[in-house]
Write a structure and sequence with these properties.
This protein has helices spanning about 10-20, 25-35, 60-75, 110-120, 130-140, 150-160, 170-180, 185-200, and strands at about 40-45, 50-55, 80. It has about 210 residues and is mainly alpha-helical. The chain is globular and about 55 Å long. The mean pLDDT is about 95.
């Protein structure tokens, strides 16, 4: 059984480290992932069952959850891989209906027909932001290609539940909890540097 790489840290040090991972930027996160062979890009399954790596990175929160799992257990989690059933790179039809399905490779924020349909299904509320992209990837990760009607309903629910910034958005999270933080960039750099120093002491997982 793999040992926790941070087991020698005190409980309070572990809590601080796991929390302050949020202050890392993507370049710092990828550096650690590459060192420990932790996947951070999205892969898809092709129609013939082969694996294909995309040029897209997972969202920051997903990668950080993967890192936390590794730090707690010593085990490297599997990559995000969308099954072939939810993947399509054909252009979207010019006319869309609520019963058409949203597939990976077809979510296009510049597609007027798609955005218009989603606005109609949400009484004009839909916005193409982080919530929409995170939600779409949640569906695809579960092997589900939702109809646009299902996606719109889920987006409304997610939006109502989203009452504050995600923890992995530290600038917004800090502002929400503390108000304006003087020299926030300096604070982020200091916390990130401390985290990276700890991470750099960990043995490489193979």
């Amino acid at each position: 059984m793999a040992a926790s790489p941070i087991s020698k840290l005190s409980k309070s040090e572990q809590r601080e480290l796991l929390h302050d991972l949020n202050y890392l930027n993507l370049a710092e996160i990828k550096q650690f992932c590459q060192r420990q062979s932790i996947p951070f890009t999205i892969a898809i399954e092709t129609k013939d069952g082969a694996r294909q790596t995309t040029r897209e990175d997972d969202r920051k929160g997903v990668i950080l959850d993967r890192i936390r799992h590794f730090l707690r257990t010593g085990k490297v989690p599997e990559e995000t891989r969308f099954p072939a059933a939810v993947v399509c790179f054909d252009p979207l039809p010019h006319e869309l209906t609520p019963d058409d399905r949203l597939l990976y490779g077809q979510y296009d924020k510049t597609d007027r027909a798609m955005i218009q349909l989603l606005k109609e299904l949400t009484a004009g509320q839909f916005r193409n932001g982080a919530i929409a992209r995170i939600l779409a990837r949640k569906f695809w990760s579960m092997g589900i290609a939702p109809t646009f009607g299902e996606f719109a309903a889920a987006w409304l629910e997610e939006t109502r539940a989203h009452t504050g910034p995600n923890p992995e958005w530290p600038f917004l999270s800090d502002r929400a909890s503390q108000g304006a933080v003087p020299d926030w960039k300096k604070l982020r750099a200091a916390k990130a540097s401390k985290v990276m120093k700890v991470l750099d002491t960990l043995p490489i997982s193979r």
